[in-house]
Design goal:
The longest helix has 47 residues. This protein is an alpha+beta fold. A hairpin with a 6-residue loop joins strand 9 and strand 10. It folds into two domains: 112 residues, no CATH class; 199 residues, Umud Fragment, subunit A (Ribbon), CATH 2.10.109. The chain is elongated. Its EC number is 3.4.21.89. Pfam families: Peptidase_S26 (PF10502).
């Protein structure tokens, strides 16, 4: 078992190392599921096989010691060094290969359940959601709001609340599902979404915007025009870059592309059933549904709702719209 366990642990370390070095595309959900499964099997083996055997060996040692003491007493020897307690402790001690598997199971299964069905942490890697979310924000995503899904398979097992316009949603990037993206829901199934000359219209109704003071981007060291927009129940902020044209350049050949019409002024799309149209709040610096298409329901990960840490600015901690 020691050799087998060493091989299993080496496989996990090798996978993680190759992922870290960029030699393969990692899947943390799958890795965590396998770790839970493997440590769970070791935990069961420890509870119902290895631990009872160690306890029986310790009990047998105690009985053998008692018989030996009884024999020595008959011979008139009463002063005998007692080494049995130390020997029993060594027999009961969990070996390293169980300590690193069965011993870790309670922690790993707790993380697996929390991450799979309740809340999952993410780090914002890009500026596509500025000013709502900044690069380096560590956020929490509600995994059950849109319905509970099976880990790894991502199959929905409860309905939950359908995504609403204005929600900030994490999803699997359609062209490459191993990547997680975060954008704002702009169009739900059946909507006609138009983004023409940098003005958003949904189902023929222009979304009202209110001009705000310019936003200073510390990374780019420049100001951007900032507006307040209300897609859902609560308003949110967005940015526009006057130096970027409204024309959508380099759109992919995605599924349901025939539902979109592109022009020099922008794009108009009819959202298919079971699909969602996503856009970043940094409107002119966001690779979103205008470029790679719609997000299918099966790709949904959860609803982003809270910044729990930003090591560059503790003022960022809190909820957002």
């Amino acid at each position: 078992m020691q050799v087998l366990t060493a091989m299993i642990l080496a496989a996990f370390v090798g996978y993680g190392g190759a992922w870290y070095m960029g030699l393969l595309e990692g899947n943390f959900a799958l890795l965590l599921f396998l770790a839970t499964l493997v440590t769970g099997l070791y935990w069961l083996a420890e509870k119902f096989y290895f631990l009872p055997r160690r306890k029986q060996a310790a009990l047998d040692l105690e009985k053998a010691s008692e018989l030996r003491l009884a024999e020595l007493k008959k011979m008139g020897i009463t002063q005998v060094d007692q080494v049995v307690p130390d020997a029993q402790a060594r027999l009961l001690m969990q070996p390293w290969w169980l300590d690193w598997t069965a011993g870790l199971f309670p922690v790993i299964v707790a993380v697996f359940l929390l991450r799979s069905f309740l809340f999952e942490p993410f780090k914002i890697p890009s500026g596509s959601m500025i000013p709502t979310l900044l690069v380096g924000d560590l956020i929490l995503v509600n995994k059950f709001h849109y319905g509970v899904r099976l880990p790894v398979l991502n199959t929905k097992i409860t309905e939950g609340t359908p995504p609403q316009r204005g929600d900030v949603m994490v999803f699997r990037y359609p062209p490459k599902p191993s990547l997680d993206y975060i954008k704002r829901v702009v169009g739900v199934p059946g909507d006609e979404v138009a983004y023409i000359n940098k003005r958003l219209t949904v189902n023929g109704k222009a979304i009202d915007t209110t001009a705000l003071p310019d936003f200073f981007d510390e990374d780019q060291m420049r100001y951007f025009k900032q507006f307040e927009e209300k897609l859902g129940d609560k308003p949110h902020r967005l940015l526009n870059d006057d130096d970027r044209p409204a024309f959508v350049q380099g759109a992919d050949d995605f599924a349901f592309r025939k539902n979109c019409q592109y022009s020099v002024e922008g794009v108009v799309c009819k959202v298919p059933e079971g699909q969602y149209f996503m856009m970043g709040d940094n409107r002119d610096n966001s690779l979103d549904s205008r470029y790679w298409g719609f997000v299918p329901d099966k790709n949904i990960v959860g609803k982003a709702f809270f910044v729990w840490m930003n090591f560059g600015s503790l003022k960022r901690i809190g909820g957002f719209n």
